[in-house]
Write a structure and sequence with these properties.
The strands form two sheets. Strands 1-2-7-5-4 form a five-stranded antiparallel β-sheet, with no helix packed on it. The protein has a three-stranded antiparallel β-sheet with strand order 6-3-8, with no helix packed on it. It is mostly beta strands and 166 residues long. The protein has one domain: Immunoglobulin-like (Sandwich), CATH 2.60.40.1090.
């Protein structure tokens, strides 16, 4: 009789465990390597193309609930306030450039609305014992400084904010 009660208690404990809400969470982070254009020569007449990258990573800390993380990666417009042409500054001088979602550099990376693009994806995590499982996505930022800009020599820079909505 004692063995039956222990078994019944064990079954009830398991039933309660399986009906419990998700235990844990999914944590995410973003990192970026900015686009470094290097030396721009206005006499070359051509565009100066360089790349950077963004990495979005999520780690599951859940025990009993599957997780899906759907995300969208957008870029701010920088100091120019416009996505049509971004601008780097050196004092009061500006050097026009832009950032793109693809290597052809024909879709500007902004918020994905109108004629701009963004990058997105989905991570799936298993439903049971997904503790420590990592999902990661890396995206290339395709940058271009437009040729034919005659600007004074100097250190030109801009600050772009990467936003990941998930």
């Amino acid at each position: 009789m004692i063995k039956r009660m222990a078994l019944a208690t064990l079954l009830l404990a398991c039933a309660g465990l399986w009906s419990a809400p998700a235990l844990g969470s999914i944590t995410c982070s973003v990192s970026a390597n900015g686009v470094t254009f290097g030396v721009y020569n206005p006499l070359s007449g051509g565009n100066l193309d360089r790349n950077g990258s963004i990495t979005f990573k999520c780690t599951s800390n859940t025990i009993l609930s599957s997780g899906t993380v759907t995300f969208d990666v957008t870029l701010s417009r920088g100091s120019s306030g416009s996505f049509t042409t971004r601008a780097m500054n050196s004092g009061s001088d500006t050097l026009e450039y832009n950032l793109y979602v693809g290597s052809l550099r024909n879709t500007i990376w902004d918020d994905g609305k109108g004629s701009t693009g963004s990058r997105s994806g989905t991570f799936q995590f298993p439903s049971i014992l997904s503790i420590g499982i990592v999902r990661e996505a890396s995206f290339t930022i395709y940058g271009r400084v437009f040729g034919g800009q005659f600007v004074p020599a100097g250190g030109y820079s801009d600050a772009i904010t990467v936003t990941v909505l998930y």
